[in-house]
Design a protein that fits this description.
With 205 residues, the chain is α+β, with helices and mostly antiparallel strands. The protein has two domains: 119 residues, Glycoprotein, Type 4 Pilin, CATH 3.30.700.20; 66 residues, 2-Layer Sandwich (Dna Ligase, domain 1), CATH 3.30.1490.150. It is 24% helix and 27% strand. The chain has four helices and nine strands; from the N terminus they run αββαββββααβββ. Strand 5 and strand 6 form a beta hairpin. Helix 1 crosses helix 2. The protein is globular, with a radius of gyration of 17 Å.
């Protein structure tokens, strides 16, 4: 997906990133921090990413990094902890919520400016609205989940930025990006430890 990475993530890299997200959250519950080491391949290349948490299909937290500041694995580790404990829309995640928790990771391409609104493809592009100090982002999967058309996507991105609904008709800057999206479900094992099971296409929990 990113020009600086060697193509798309492998299945093994996706599973590793999901495990890193889970391990980071568990470590935070134990009062520890976890940052992955000995990174290789795509995991070692700086990339933006968001981590979305859902419980029984309901949003429980979503935070990430747009710009490629950290190696991808570290970005995911930091975003996972932030989504679990620092999303101001929700109270911090509790240990009893871990079993059955869905962890979704969106690995982003670098944003690029939108010159014509017709460039935006709903379901393919994420969207950033920016005007002065105001900035808001919606991931590519959001308009699909809510069955929005392009106008609704633009309006809701304006609102996310704290701007008026029709800011897209004015001098607001927009940026688009793409994302590689995958997820898994947290399982509590008999030993008291946790595992994450890769989510197959169409699977719900």
């Amino acid at each position: 997906m990113l020009n600086s990475r060697d193509g798309r993530l492998t299945q093994e890299e996706k599973k590793t990133l999901l495990w890193i997200a889970l391990k980071s959250i568990v470590a935070a519950f134990e009062g520890r921090s976890f940052l992955p080491e000995n990174l290789s391949g795509n995991l070692s290349v700086p990339a933006g990413a968001f981590v979305t948490l859902r419980k029984h299909g309901t949003l429980r937290g979503c935070i990430g990094y747009v710009e490629p500041v950290f190696p991808l694995a570290e970005t995911v580790a930091r975003a996972a902890v932030a989504a679990a404990f620092n999303d101001p829309r929700f109270h911090p995640l509790q240990p009893e919520e871990l079993p059955g928790l869905e962890i979704e990771i969106s690995v982003l391409t670098p944003p690029r400016p939108v010159r014509e609104l017709s460039e935006i493809v709903v379901g393919r592009h994420g969207l950033i609205a920016e005007r002065g100090p105001y900035r808001g982002l919606l991931l590519p999967q959001v308009p699909v989940e809510y069955n929005w058309d392009l106008k609704e996507f633009l309006q809701n991105t304006c609102l996310k930025a704290g701007l008026e609904r029709d800011c897209w008709q004015g001098n607001t800057r927009f940026y688009i990006f793409e994302a590689e999206i995958f997820s898994g479900f947290v399982e509590l094992l008999g030993t008291g430890s946790y595992n994450i099971r890769y989510k197959t296409q169409g699977e719900e929990q």
